[in-house]
Amino acid sequence: MAGVAAVLVVVLSSGGDGSGSPPDPRAKLPLIERRVEQIRALDFKEPVPARLVTPAQVKAEGVAELNRMVPSQLIDTNEVLQFLGLLPEGTNLRRLLASALEQQVAGLYDPRIHRLELVRRKGSQNATLDELTLAHELDHALDDQNFRLKDVNAVTDDAATAYSALVEGTATAVMQDYARQHVSGTDALGAALASAGAGSSEGLPRYVVDSLAFPYIAGLKFVTRLRELGQGWKLVNFAFSARQPTTSEQVIHPLAYLRGAGAVPVGLPPAGALGRGWQRDVAGSFGEFDTYELLRTGLSDARARRASEGWGGGRYALFRRGQYDPACKPPCRATEALAVRWRWDSQRDAREFAAALRVYAEHRRGAAVSTSPKETTLAIAPTSALARTLTR
Q1: If you ran DSSP here, which 8-state letter would residue 263 be given?
Q2: How many Å apart are CA 262 and CA 250, to the nearest integer?
Q3: Residue 79's closest CA among 292, 349, 283, 250?
Q4: Which of 18, 138, 203, 327 is the most buried (most CB within 10 A)?
Q5: Considering only CA atoms, which of 266, 267, 288, 270 is closest in space to residue 279?
Q6: Is the CB of residue 305 less than 8 Å from the CB of residue 330?
Q7: Of 223, 237, 225, nearest in space to 173 by CA
């Protein structure tokens, strides 16, 4: 769910350093640029413009970014996540994401306008955090100048999640190396920042927190593994320039990326299965990360992780009867239905997942599950009978 506008979410909520207002961190920009070049083994092609912004400005820019999306995309995403129980019913996803940006962003790099921004929070500046944030965002600029970063703003798309993990994982690895090499006495701080999960996550649903954290935490592990196997940045550069990761499975399991194991095509039920007046409103990918998050709503983390492994492909579709009714609060259970279908690497994987999914489905009104040797379908509809029809 995090786009590649390089949102840096820090785990520390640091107070000031006790020395009053710190100096403008941009004064060190040329020095930090040279250090990032040395760590990343790439050269800047041109200077990177930078400006200081307030949390309110970041929120306004985030809202503008959300407004660039097709309006129905955010509405449908909101419906899908609430149908699945990944967001509480009645959630306003646009407002939630805008609030998360305001609360958690420390810095960002916009690949559309090639500009870096550093967030200034009144009374909470810290020179060390500023320097490390600049190192992180400058790496985004460096990668953009060398590989041309994509502007990804899809909210629920497994390929976008995987690409964001490559981008954020690389910048987090650079920031971690920067902390080790150039910031004395901050080994623990560097490690914490490298695990950048969520700042103040109070009030945010777990799925949102995990989605914001995934590109940083899983992305760092992915990039670290590529660096180990490639003895440097060679494989990381290959991932940027020649073969980008396309699934969250490849990020979670780097060997799957190296084998070129992409998503297996998955067919979706036709709208006609629901009867007259129904139409498919939206469809998209459903990766291993989202599968794990789905199972976590009713199972232990360990069982959810085991059951989501062996993922071969996943797709979802939201069906609607008639026109979208803004008066029907999401999820609109009377006129909407959802189907998610998975393919698995083996029959054993399919059986293990189906058993876990049935536990999940027991707690979802109007849900049904069907299985075949390597395929599993979940449907949620206005009635259980209609859901069973959709699974078939």
Answers
A1: P
A2: 8
A3: 283
A4: 138
A5: 270
A6: no
A7: 223
pLDDT tens, residue by residue, 373-386: 999 999 999 999 99
Q: What is the pTM of this model?
A: 0.89
Rounded average pLDDT over 217-234: 96
Amino acid at 15: G
Region at 380 (left for phi over 0; alpha for psi -120 to 50; beta for the rest)? beta
Cα 307 to Cα 354: distance, rounded to the nearest angstrom: 8
Residue at 108: amino acid letter: L
Residues contacting residue 202 through CB under 8 Å, at least 6 positions apart: none
| Dihedrals phi, psi of 149, to nearest 5 degrees | -65, 145
List all residues 6 or more positions away from 270 whose beta carbon is below 8 Å from its beta carbon: 280
Please state the separation of Cα 150 from the chain's center in Å. Answer: 15
> Residues near 355 by Cβ (< 8 Å), separated by ≥ 6?
307
Please report, for the chain, the start and end positions of each structural domain, with discontinuous segments joined by +.
Answer: 25-258, 271-391
Which residue from 364, 375, 370 is spatially nearest to 391, judged by alpha carbons? 370
Residues 6+ apart with CB under 8 A from 99: 59, 203, 204
By the 8 A CB rule, do 198 and 209 touch?
A: yes
CA 298 to CA 363: how far, in whole Å? Answer: 8
Q: What angle do CA 122, 123, 125 make, to 5 degrees?
A: 90
CA distance 24 to 21: 9
Give the tens place of pLDDT for each residue, 46-88: 999 999 998 888 888 877 777 776 666 778 888 999 999 999 9
Identify the bridge partners of residue 313 per DSSP, sorted by sequence position: 343
Taking residue 302's Cβ as centre, other Cβ atoms within 10 Å add up to 8
